[in-house]
Amino acid sequence: MFPNSPNARLLLLVVTSSYDEIGNKKYVVESKKEVIGSVSSLTTNQYKSSLEIGKNVEFKVSIQSILFDGSKYVSINGETFLIERTYQNGQFIELYLSKSDVEVSLNEECST
Question: Which residues does 111 contact at the CB level (< 8 Å), separation at least 6?
Answer without folding.
Answer: 30, 31
